[in-house]
Every structure is written in C-alpha cells, then in structure tokens.
Design goal:
The chain has 175 residues and is an alpha/beta fold. It has a single domain, classed as UDP N-Acetylglucosamine Acyltransferase, domain 1. 21% of the residues lie in helices and 17% in strands. The protein is built from 3 helices and 14 strands. The protein has a 5-stranded parallel β-sheet. The protein has a 5-stranded parallel β-sheet with strand order 3-6-9-12-14. The protein is globular and about 55 Å long. The protein starts with a helix and ends in a 26-residue tail after the last strand.
Length: 175
C-alpha cells in the first residue's frame, strides 16, 4: 500500500532528503551534509548531496548503498543493497598534492539496474543506458549501453590450513 511505502521503505526517506539537500548544496555547504548524514544514520544509505540523480530513481533494500559526490545517475535507475558508486582515488597535481574538484565518481546512464554488492569506481567509468550489472561485480571500466555484466564460473576454494602455530602475519592465506 501507499502507506507502507511511505512508512516502511527507508530508501524513500534517503532519496527525498538527498533531493532537498542537493538543491541547497551549491549555496549552503554545511547544512546539506548534515541532512544527508542524518539520513544515513537513519537509513544506512549514504548519498552525498553533490550527487546528481535523475527522476524515478529507486533503491531496494538500501542498507550499505554509497553514492559519491560527483556521481551522476540517469532516470529510472534501480540499485540494490550494498552498491557503491565511489572514487578510485583523488587526483593529484604535479607536486603530489590532492586537487580539489574534478569528477571522481562514475556516471550511470538511464534505465540501469545494479544488483547487490556491486562496486563501481572512478570518474571516467560510465555505465551505458539499459545495462544490468550483476551482483558482487567490481568495475573500474566503462560498460557500453545494453550490456549485461556478471561473473562467470566464480570459484570458491576451500583448502586446508597449514598445521603450524598461528603466525603473526597472515601466512595462513598464502599457498
């Protein structure tokens, strides 16, 4: 029901607060961050007020969603829980100092679905329109429109631990 959506879907609250914070973001720098951090604490969804998000955006089971400051999201995009749209690193000048400004987060074009646990990083990364990103995908490259991205033949390995005293380093993970 309509009432259930309003009262029981935290993503609706997070997106509504983001939309208000985004309107204020250019003019009043601190208040929008306070608004979105408050929404983050209530919903588990972290949307930076600088992110540009199109109409009919939907987050399903939103816990753990992170959307970075320079992210651009087109219309009718759907994200599931634990999706990160983040930065690879900060750009640096010729002296190694961090440069302010610049696009650090991905662009997601219209009609894209991104399934749980996926991480998409980098300002040059573009997810083409009408694409689907499968669960637990890690992307640092662009995807053409109308693409399906998923892992094939993922393999879980179970190997016996070495029968030695526990080491102070993480040797037990080495082969």
């Amino acid at each position: 029901s309509y009432e259930e959506i309003i009262l029981a879907y935290p993503a609706l609250e997070a997106v509504a607060i983001h939309r208000m914070a985004h309107l204020l973001y250019e003019k009043v720098p601190l208040i929008p961050r306070i608004m979105t951090e408050w929404a983050h604490s209530r919903t588990g969804i972290d949307i930076h007020p600088g992110a540009k998000i199109g109409e009919n955006f939907f987050i399903d089971h939103g816990t753990g969603v992170v959307i970075g400051e320079t992210t651009e999201i087109g219309a009718r995009v759907k994200l599931y829980h634990a999706v990160t749209l983040g930065a690879r690193s900060f750009q640096k000048d010729q002296h190694g100092k961090i440069k302010k400004g610049g696009k650090r987060h991905p662009t997601v074009e219209e009609d894209v679905t991104i399934y749980p646990g996926s991480t998409i990083l980098g300002g040059e990364t573009v997810i083409g329109a009408r694409s689907t990103i499968g669960g637990n995908v890690f992307l640092v490259q662009s995807v053409p429109p109308d693409s399906l991205v998923y892992y094939e033949e993922k393999q879980l390995r179970i190997v016996p631990k070495r029968k030695k005293r526990p080491a102070t380093t993480r040797d037990e993970f080495r082969e």
